[in-house]
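Researcher: I'm preparing a figure for a lab meeting and need a structural model of a single chain. I don't have an experimental structure, so a prediction will have to do for now. The sequence is pasted below. Please return the structure as tokens so I can convert it later.
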Amino acid sequence: MKRVAWSVCFILILLTCKHANHPPEVPVTPWCKSEEGTALTTYAFMTSTHDPDEDRISIRFDWGDGTISTWSHLIPSDSVWIDTHTFTESGTYEIRAQAKDEHGATSEWSAPFVFTVKSYYPPPGSLEVWGPDTGYIGEDYWFYARAVDPNNDSIQFQFLVLLGMTITDTIDWRPPVPSGGIDSIQLSFTLADTSFEFRAYAKNIHGSVADTFASTFIRIVDRPPTAPPPPSCKPMSYVYTPMKFSTQTSDPDPYDDALSYRFVFDNDTTAWGPPDTSVYTVWYYFDTPGLHYVRAQARDQWSRVSEWSDPTAISIKTNFVDEWPNFDTPIEICVTDDRAYIVESGTQSLVITDLSGNIIDKWQYFDTPISVDVDTNGYIYVTDAGTQTVKKLSPTGTIVAEWGGYGAANGQFRYPYDIAVYDTFVFVVDRENHRIQKFTHNGEFVTSWGGFGAGDGQFYLPTGIDIHNDTVYVADFYNNRVQIFTTSGTYISKFGETEGVEDGQFIGLRDVAVDDSGYVYTIESDNARVQKFKYITFITRWGTSGTAVGCFNNPQALSTCGNLLYVVDTENDRIQIFDLTQ
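Model: Understood. Here is the structure written out token by token.
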């Protein structure tokens, strides 16, 4: 009985072991007769595997494009299964296989088979580009491209402009042109002395891009500016007198708006000026009389230089006659037919000379003498800012009258400055009261006019006065102008009013003088120059800061006598004399 039980158990174990199921082995890597194909073309792929239990099996493929085939019908173990698939897009795909036996047991996925799919629409070929190999900055140039498509499909082009490895411009895919047709684009360039690459890519209308690009190169060069015209300036001037020279030209390249300029004065070449888009101006003076020449030249931002302009000729004259040196800080002068009366600030004295500058006498009984004038009888009138008075002296130097005193009432002064004697009257510049006072020769007050301000007839620290033909000219210092009045103080006209260095402008207007012909002369301490006017119209000027003859250093006053102009060159300690006919 015991032996029978063990026999039954053994038979059951054998039956159980016989019916245990095993999954198929992993399929071999799928294969195809080619490793690459074309989109929209059907290809056959194969694989096989072994089932350990010799069961029938089904096989499916993962196509690598997001789709998996259905399970095949059951086939014997170790049979080759063939399935087909069509890829719709180009790309690289990994194809795997999996097996399942008739009992439903599945294998792992196989190793991938790499299959490359190219476009059904092959890319264009025979790509070429062309265009100019040289050009100018800012000009427009045409570039062209052409390619041929194997299927005669239309073609699109993309263009790049490169400077070395840097892309400076991208023209994205353009409208299609027929296969073999030409596409063109117009370009300009903003950098000179540089080579640019023009590069083209091509694709057909199905998106198939040509394997290579095509290029051409253009070198952009810069043209020099146009030669400037002859510099503009006055045709005549005086030695040591700054003149304004101007020039302007154009550049043929549109991006060279700002140009630098330089001038050559005879053989003296200036440095390049800063880039400028407007008229360029420099100031220059010649130190010798004669005919001089000036030329101009232009340079663009790429350092291309124009030709020199044609010359402008300038006639430089000298009207200098003489100088009287060795005064101690002279500040005022009055010249008569045979004498000159000079106020020396350094010695607080009145120096009398002959008309050659030789000292005849020196009177030193003043506190702070400022100005001097002489009447037709030889009496001398001196303003003394220290005592706030006007002193009248006899021709021999005896004080015969004195009037004034500090204050703002009629006949009083706050810093009496310049003085002018005309007819039977004495006119005094009452500087810090901002007015002109009129007296008789004996100091009797007649009238006054002015007051602080910038309006017509007002003054701001006036400094100089002269009278000609019943017309009073007043140097209105801080208002940078000369005002003109009748001898009764009625306002007539003015000129100036603008602070500056241009003709007719003033900086540091100190004194005014009128010659026998009615020409008006002014002296400026800051601009260190004399200006000449016909009434209110500018005529000419001369002088600049310096120590050479014809130059001035803080000049303070001037006086005319006949055809000569006497200028008090204060900090050069001298009187300079000029010929008014030159």
